[in-house]
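Question:
Now give any protein.
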Amino acid sequence: MTHRPHRTAPRFGVNYTPSQGWFHHWLDFDLDDVRADLDSVAALGLDHVRVFPLWPLFQPNRTLIRPRAVEQLGLLVDAAGERGLDVAVDGLQGHLSSFDFLPAWTRTWHRRNLFTDPEVLDGQSAYLRTLAAALADRPNFLGMTVGNEINQFSGDPHPDPDRISPDEAAAWLRRMLDACEEGAPGRFHLHAEYDAAWYQDDHPFTPAQAARIGGATAVHSWVFNGTAQRHGPDSVAVAQHAAYLIELSKAWATDPRRPVWLQEVGAPAPHIAPDRAAGFTRTTVAAALDCPDLWGITWWCSHDVDRSLADFPELEYSLGLLTTDRRVKPAGRALADAVAEARATAPAPAPRGTALVLDLPEEAPKRSSCAPGGAYFEAFMRLAADGARPAVVLAARAADPAYLAARGITELVTLDDLGTAGGTAGSGSGTGAAPR
């Protein structure tokens, strides 16, 4: 059974990256450090955090889920609640900031498909059920996300993928979400993919899965995917990329009012230079808040990565709203100001009356037209640059008056109308950007 959050004003939060030891902090868990980090997050006026237990540390053997690790997760959730912060928990990490974290019982001598092997599925289900059940009675526990961008393990450009079909991906998602629901009935459980699901031809995780399975649709917006490189840091396309993904996701939803969670967005250097990060934060938040049915915005990330830690891509070190010694950076101040202003004055966004028709089948095997440089992406950004507030509607729904009315759509525009139907296509493999 899918549970949806109550519709309220948008939530504002941050992906919690511990200031001491990054996610390796689970190896040397220090509750005082966690409390100090959460104090610095709460001081920004945010209302929730998304947190990341490392799967191989919590479940080092298929039949061993470490009680002490689960207890420490509970302590973190309780510490957040003491500071007025709700907590969403990602389960299968999986993949974070260019590093893979998979338990030994899935790799090398024990190599088996993460998405289809019966024993792996049993282990994953037990793990997600255990985490959810341990937190189910805590009032500030929002729910589980199955994992962070775990779709990256299913195909290119991963160097050693566990290949699956779209049907197998859908079956895996449903089983994992069922496990979350069994552990914590009625909470806000969902899944989240990196943008290959929206942009990459033939990727097994599809837009329809993202927009129909789970309690909300999650989108992760990263302008290093070709948007900033093609259009420049001060472009409409960069400012509107997160809003574009929010609106693009709605096209595949069967529920015209399905909530969308902008679960990751950040200002990656050098694509967004440090002196532009605050401006990027303001414009991105404003654009996202102009999208109806937005559940919330969760910025990536809370604290910078300490430069004593080796081998991260350069952009990962400086994505924090705060430094490793918990000082607020310009982007952090910009987000805090935007949140305060939105709570004080921002009205609910009006419906987006003009929709750009997307002529793709609902299963969308070929979707690179929607990627940066693709004909559809560029047409949407042209409309936005001209001052429009475009929505997205599939061609199959464009003749459904009840559906259009439910979304407040009164005008349809096609690529032919804009003279771009034969425009630049995507590469056929999406953006080519690595997941995070």
Observations:
- The first strand starts at residue 11 and ends at 15.
